[in-house]
Every structure is written in structure tokens, then in C-alpha cells.
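Write out a record, fold above all:
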Amino acid sequence: MRRDGTDWLLQSVADQVRGSGFPAVWQMMEQTFHTELLPPSARDLVSATSRPTQELVLSYWQELLDTPPEQLSTIVAAEMDQLRAAGVPYLLITGAQLPPGLGNWIRDALPQATVEVWPRSGHFPHLAYPARFAKRLADTAAWPGSAAARW
């Protein structure tokens, strides 16, 4: 559950997402991905492969669409408590600066979290900076508790 209001936005358009308004809602969501920021090859990859069906999107968003916001907040708080208590390292890579409220909430909820902003990459920092992403992903193998660290 995001603290920037996105979940409540999704709930406000739930009937459209489930009905004939899905294409318009998806187009609105795609505009927030900022694919225009990507290098041409990454932009072409997204364009050629991104064909989400209404059924697929509904399966991903079902909990967000069906669960009251207060209950979602309780669920997320419990999950964050478990992560914090376990001391599990957490890396969040974003393509833009987080809204202050969301950034503060993440820092408070998960002190072990590292937030990295990879500018000008929109929803796809892994495509804008593939080598950098691969390196950061490989680095997680050495984190305490990772399967690779136990080998």
C-alpha cells in the first residue's frame, strides 16, 4: 500500500478497471511510467512487450481494489513490522524522488531500508540503467540472510 494516495485512486476507478473503462484507466497509468525518459532501446522494449490484459491487471490489483483502505493500512503495517523485526535489508530503487511523506514513512517503518533514486528512469530504472541494476542485484547476494551468503 502506498502512502501517496495511489491505492485510493485505484479504488476510486475500480468500476472502470473492472468494466469497459479499463483501456482509459490503463492509459492514465501508463502516463505515470514516463517511458519518454528511457533510452530509445529501453523505450522500444517496453512498447513492444507491454500488453497487459484487463484480467492480468485485475489479478495484480485485486487486493488493492477490494480491501478497504483502513484494512490495507493494517496489513501493510503488520508486514513492515515483520520486516523491521527480522532486520532484513531492503533496497528500494526509484526513478524519481519520492514524495516527502512516503520517503519519511519508509524510513520510519524500515530503518534498514536503503532508498536510491535513479533519475530520469520513470517506472523502469532497471531498464534505464541495466548494468547498474544488475550490479545492485548481485550485491544483494552478500546481504545477511540471503541464500548466496549461506553457501
